[in-house]
Amino acid sequence: MSSHFGTIGIGVTSQEELGERVVSLIGAGTTRRITKKISEHVWTDPSGARLVAQVHHGGIEFLLPCLAGTAPAVPVGDVRLVDDETAMLDLLDGAGGELICPIAVELEDRAVLAHSGGRLESGSLVLAALAEEITVHADADAYSASQDGEPEFAADHFIPSGTFPPGEPAPGWTPSAHALFAGEVVEAGTPVNTVTGTAFHRIRVRTIAAIELDVAIATTELDRTPAPGNVVSGTFFLTGSLGLQPENPVKRRGWFRR
Q: What share of the chain has pLDDT > 90, as a percent?
């Protein structure tokens, strides 16, 4: 299984190296003030690799590696934070439409959502994912054939696995931003993280209800970039942006201490 940082070309060998790299990148990013004590720092590479950090009194208290998504936004409803990191929301088949499924996702703009009360009745989500485990099939027929002898799922299924507790949930259990899904590759490339010089695969996947999302995959997970027309399936970590902006934002570049 690839690390979330590895999927966007940030490969590290130790926690110390990770900490140094993160501080360096976040310090070079854009800062916006959420409250007098809390700021959000966003670094985005031309490759689409992105880090989002929430900083409180100069210390990082929330860090999200993600992919700057460019897929069409998906209408969502009943958006609410369920813990310090994760939000639950309903994917809809159109603005004010029917429920497709509830999902758990880690939001790039969670700090703004938290400061505004932690809930939204509706919004639009640009959805992205980091591949943890992934399999590539030549096409939908090859995907179907690979399921011989197993319960069959459609080539465009989406199962929000992180919303289901494993067995008897422990006290305090909350959903995690994970899903099992499959879909057709509609765009593909292998950009290079310009800071680390490490390439990663970036694909656009069309899944259930024609929803599209961008997916980052570590090259250690797949030797070759999936091609348009392939079907991919696997386990993914879900991230996204609602496009929320803080009230009276102050944007600047700056440095902060650990």
A: 65
